[in-house]
Amino acid sequence: MSRARDLRQTIEDEIVEGRLALGARLDEVQLATRFGVSRTPIREALLQLAVSGLVETKPRRGTIVSAPEPHHLIAMFETMAEIEAACGRLAARRLGAGDRTALEAALAACAAASDDCETYYAENYVFHSLIYRASHNAFLAEQALSLHRRLAPYRRLQLRVRQRLPQSLAEHRAIVEAILAGDDATAAERLRSHVLVQGDRFADLISGLRASNAA
């Protein structure tokens, strides 16, 4: 499973960065030969990519690189925003001493990585995961992690938009401030706004997807 995850990340990067173009066919045998693995982890990686809408299987064409429908992306981000808002609200109410320390450390790590998109994304994942855990609702945290993973390619792509990294970091600081203050309503609203793509942010995301697929 770890090998399939690594392969999924590599293929995902190539799709998002435009090295695998929209409509390109992903042949399991060729990919297995390229990466020096059996077809089993390749098949699992492609299944994982299909969940996020980056690939799809078509009759007589096999697995190809695809693009998500805008309305589907909006629906996923709307759901993610509400789930994260719920996690933030509960975290503000239930934050323990260990949660506080971990969240402050994660924020500092995000700040230290704010000049590099890929490093920042890794720290961003930790940051959000800690908020889910701080909700002390295991089921909610599980759902949040699951959807976060599905949206990973698009959340990473968002961070490549000009000035999004410093903006994201500023939003992280405001979120932590609200959680540490125990202000559950503000924590929820700031997380909802942080995650939700609408207006210019959604236009930037779609533009990024189109640019990647046209590269």
3D architecture notes:
The chain is mainly alpha-helical. 74% of the residues lie in helices and 4% in strands. It is built from 11 helices and 2 strands; from the N terminus they run H-H-H-E-E-H-H-H-H-H-H-H-H. A two-stranded antiparallel sheet has the order 1-2. Helix 4 runs antiparallel to helix 7 (138-150), helix 4 packs parallel to helix 9 (164-180) and helix 5 runs antiparallel to helix 9 (164-180). It is elongated. The two termini are 31 Å apart. The mean pLDDT is 87.
Biggest sheet: strand arrangement: 1-2
* Mass-distribution shape: elongated
Radius of gyration: 18 Å
Q: Could you give a short account of the major beta sheet? A: 2 strands, antiparallel
Q: What is the number of helical segments per DSSP (H or I, 4+ residues)?
A: 11
**Class of secondary structure makeup:** mainly alpha
Quantity of strands, as a count = 2
Poorly predicted runs are: none
Q: Portion of residues in helices?
A: over 70%
Mean of the pLDDT scores? 87
Distance between the termini: 31 Å
- Strand residue content: under 5%
Order of helices and strands: HHHEEHHHHHHHH
